[in-house]
Amino acid sequence: MKLEVKKIGNSTGLILPKDLLTKLNLQQGQWLHVTELPDGGVRLTPYDPDFDKAMAIVDDIMDEYKDTLRALAQ
């Protein structure tokens, strides 16, 4: 699916087609979670506060054990 980046008022945004909103089970006013992928792309998923909390915990763990994780990755 190809989407155009447009000027919306004083901002820049995307207009999501109705079929994509249905597929993501989204309605106006809801939030999306954007995840960066290793290949440079992004993944859009419905925002889940529990997932956001879990990712914050994972980030803290990765920061705390970055040297250990780096050594394990070799």
UniProtKB/TrEMBL annotation:
Biological source species: Methylobacterium adhaesivum
SUPFAM superfamilies: AbrB/MazE/MraZ-like (SSF89447)
Name of this chain's protein: AbrB family transcriptional regulator
Highest taxon, organism lineage: Bacteria
Listed InterPro entries: Doc_partner, SpoVT-AbrB_dom, SpoVT-AbrB_sf
Gene3D superfamilies recorded: 2.10.260.10
A Pfam family of this chain: MazE_antitoxin
Stretches that traverse the bilayer: none
All copies of domain SpoVT-AbrB, residue ranges: 6-52
